[in-house]
Amino acid sequence: MTLKNKVILVTGGAKRVGAAICCKLHAQGANLMVHYRSSQNDAQMLRQTLEQMRPDSVELVQADLLEMERIPGLIEETVRRFGKLDALVNNASSFFPTPIGQLTEQAWVDLIGSNLKAPLFLSQAAVPYLEKQHGCIVNIVDIHVEHPLKNYVIYNAAKGGLAALTRSLALELAPFIRVNGVAPGPIMWPEHEEWIDQSLRKEIIDRTLLKRMGEPEDIAKAVYFLIADAPFITGQIIVVDGGRSINL
Ligand SMILES: NC(=O)c1ccc[n+]([C@@H]2O[C@H](COP(=O)([O-])OP(=O)(O)OC[C@H]3O[C@@H](n4cnc5c(N)ncnc54)[C@H](OP(=O)(O)O)[C@@H]3O)[C@@H](O)[C@H]2O)c1
Fold it and tell me: Which residues of the chain have pLDDT under 50?
């Protein structure tokens, strides 16, 4: 229980990778503020499951992270409910193609907003509380920062910005707050991307050195490590991709 009594806010935590991060951190003793946008049922089920193990250890907060005025409130609600903030995990992300010729400002606002702008302004709002706790920030980035995904110009740029933000905030917030990232490779297929057919899935898996998809728990373990067991690590991004990024 290395995270006993620690308070952690996880964005987009209701399901998929975010939920795995929540389960791992909770199992190690953390109290969680789980943020969700539209996945209310998943969020409530997750809370119920986790609170069966430890009552009063999970709170839910709903917000569309594109609504800037909601951002400071997420941090404040966490501190009001649990009394402090030890770590912020910026996991929420939108993901959809933006082929050249079909770019829209709306797509820019959505992808940059959820993947880059919200993590920055959440971090800023969290700074006074994280500083008190000598806490940390973990940003969930992507291997496609280094190797762009075709047709995803804005998403690639947003995650590239998040990688730069990770290093930049590490510089700004040292020595009291560590800022790191985790860059997943293929972990879970996107929910609404039918273009990833069976042959493309096979090709992506074949290009991992370990010849398989990762699991959400692999990302959760890296996040846990950076929060709980990495006191001398800041400004770094750990790639968790089964070796795919050295074999693209
Ligand atoms: N899955 C992978 O293999 C993979 C690969 C590379 C990188 N990643 C990164 O790892 C993280 C988790 O991946 P994932 O596949 O589990 O993510 P995901 O399911 O695509 O998205 C996570 C959550 O982000 C929330 N979200 C999206 N836009 C939002 C907004 N405007 N405001 C608030 N919340 C918003 C959604 O919450 P609601 O459902 O509540 O609306 C969603 O459940 C992401 O940062 C992703 O970019 C994942």
Answer: none
